[in-house]
Design goal:
It is a single chain. This protein is an alpha+beta fold. Helix 9 runs antiparallel to helix 11, helix 9 packs parallel to helix 13 and helix 12 packs across helix 13. It is found in: Membrane. This is LEAF RUST 10 DISEASE-RESISTANCEUS RECEPTOR-LIKE PROTEIN KINASE-like 2.1. It is a single-pass type I membrane protein.
């Protein structure tokens, strides 16, 4: 390994190329049981379970980089299940969680074991079974001549409340061992890697060295005296600048106003290229007047706040964007994108304001607000027919954005929060801050940084090994949202614990394959069950990992409008 610490640029490129090739082969052969590829790095191997015939994945927690496994022999709802399988983690980048407790079972023993706990329900004649908690068995224990078998099982340390059977059936948690190491490596400007033979984590640094944790910043630590001297000089310069500012405050303010005005003029120039399609420009005083000085706030998001306003007797929604650096690209994206649209399922842009630092966008007012305020409520659920019409309307809106405009508009942030509902619960796609315009014939975008919301981002957006970024990336987000509509809860939830984490798309897929009852809501009619199953199948097709397997948006609409019997079960997501 020491010989590999320093190598030529050509050697480094060859190594990176090898890692890319290795990863592509690993991904091609990897068919995990609903375990999605870890999004932290394209150079880190998937968390693959050694033997899916003996263990199955019960849940995944992408926030804590962990997954819950259950021994298949302990899932028969028996009060006295027998664990039969040992799990070896030597060949996978996984480790037991701090929440796990190991149980060492000794089966069919002819005599008692010292300081052990008997398992009375497994007694067979004169043979009894025992177990130890946390590897507490005596070091000199000679069980070979006493017991027939030894199995080390694992369960969550909180599982004892409901008994041994429930504890084993709840499963245990494994952490992705090097996820935190990869984060540290990337934070030090390194590239995450993995030694496939030794299973060691590697960090490739810019100075052509390989580290086992993170890159070091040689040459950046200055001698103490030099640091003090530089600090003193810096302080003196800062004080001088402050004095100059005090004397020239007015000129500096004039300069700031001039720079802000120039930036706004640049944004206006970008919008002018859209000619007659450019929306109406309002002054900041107009904005204050139409919102009654921002009296009624409708909502708040990462972009800023939304206020209710009134223009010529008609209610409007006024979105105040937070101050941002750069050339106002998000603002231009949103205004320019929606200016080209006119569709019942796309929100209508009425105007904008550039007279202040807080850029403002004016929309038509939606009485029922954003979809996320309705989809996750426990006290009130929308009717299945309404949910179906909302799903169909959003699909038609996406079809229009992708095929109905002069330029193809890729949204890149389809989620319930960005779907608005009018008084009749007609859905309208909104918030085009992350949108990209491309020519209609262009199917793959060559360069694009990762964008979107966690839980709805297509795999190819954050890792190009899955395929090219295209309009089908919007389909993935749409599919995840449709599945949330059926399940009534978020597929991705950072607040879920290890015990309660259930990945709904996987759960729904297995129910559909086994033709089992969904049991999603109480008092559901047969017709509503048909709607739910149809939406699940459409959602599962749209969230296929391979973009090529996702249906075209026209096909999605056809599937929603057609019969359930005509739909095929998609591959496992």
């Amino acid at each position: 390994m020491k010989q590999a610490l320093h190598f030529s640029l050509q050697g480094k490129r060859a190594l990176v190329a090898f890692l890319r090739l290795w990863l592509s082969k690993a991904l091609a052969a990897f068919e995990p049981p609903c375990v999605r590829f870890p999004p932290s790095s394209c150079y880190f191997p998937p968390a693959q379970i050694p033997d899916t015939n003996t263990f199955f994945v019960k849940g995944i927690d992408y926030t804590n980089h962990s997954l819950t496994l259950v021994d298949r022999d302990t899932t028969d709802n028996s009060a006295c299940p027998r664990a039969r399988h040992n799990l070896t983690l030597e060949d996978v980048p996984l480790e037991y969680s701090k929440h796990d407790t190991h149980l060492t079972f000794y089966y069919n023993c002819t005599s008692s074991l010292p300081a052990s706990i008997p398992v009375d329900c497994l007694t067979s004649g004169e043979k009894k079974s025992y177990f130890y908690v946390g590897h507490n068995e005596p070091k000199d224990l000679n069980w070979y001549g006493i017991c027939e078998d030894k199995v080390v099982a694992t369960e969550l340390d909180v599982g004892w409340i409901r008994g041994l059977g429930a504890a084993l059936s709840d499963g245990f948690v494994l952490d992705w061992r090097s996820a935190s190491e990869c984060a540290k490596c990337e934070a030090s400007d390194g590239l995450c890697g993995f030694n496939n033979s030794t299973k060691d984590f590697l960090c490739f640094c810019k100075d052509s060295t390989i580290k086992f944790d993170h890159c070091t910043s040689k040459g950046r630590i200055l001698p103490l005296k030099l640091s003090i001297a530089l600090s003193a000089v810096g302080t003196a310069i800062a004080v001088t600048c402050c004095l100059i500012c005090c004397f020239r405050f007015r000129k500096l303010c004039d300069l700031c106003v001039s720079l802000t005005k120039t930036a706004d003029q640049n944004v206006e120039a970008n919008l002018q290229q859209y000619g007659s399609l450019a929306p109406m420009a309002y002054s900041y005083s107009d904005i204050r007047k139409m919102t009654s000085s921002f009296k009624e706030k409708l909502g708040e998001g990462g972009y800023g706040g939304v206020y209710k306003g009134n223009v010529n007797g008609h209610p409007v929604a006024v979105k105040i964007l937070k101050a941002s650096e750069g050339n106002g690209e998000d603002f231009i994206n949103e205004v320019a994108s929606i200016s080209q649209t006119s569709h019942v399922n796309v929100v209508t842009l009425l105007g904008f304001c550039l007279n202040r630092r807080e850029k403002t966008i004016i929309y038509e007012f939606m009485p029922n607000g954003s979809f996320d305020k309705h989809i996750y409520r426990e006290d009130f659920r929308l009717e299945w027919e309404v949910l179906y019409k909302i799903a169909l309307g959003i699909a038609r809106g996406l079809e229009y954005l992708h095929r109905g405009c002069n330029s193809r508009i890729l949204h890149f942030d389809i989620k319930p929060h960005n779907i608005l509902l009018d008084e009749d619960f007609c859905p309208k796609i909104s918030d085009f801050g992350l949108a990209k315009l491309c020519i209609r014939k262009e199917s793959i975008m060559s360069t694009l940084e990762a964008r979107g919301t966690v839980g709805y981002i297509a795999p190819e957006v954050f890792c190009r090994n899955f395929g090219g970024v295209s309009h089908k990336s919007d389909f993935y987000s749409y599919g995840m949202m449709v599945l949330e509509m059926v399940g009534g809860k978020r597929n991705y939830n950072a607040e879920r614990s290890h015990n309660s984490e259930i990945y709904f798309p996987c759960w729904a897929y297995h129910r559909i394959v086994l033709d089992e009852e969904l049991n999603i809501r109480d008092r559901i009619t047969n017709e509503e069950k048909q709607i739910a199953k149809k939406m699940i199948l459409v959602g599962l097709w749209c969230i296929q990992t391979d973009p090529l397997q996702r249906p075209a948006i026209g096909k999605v609409i056809e599937m929603l409008e057609g019969s359930l019997e005509a739909l095929q079960i998609p591959p496992k997501p």
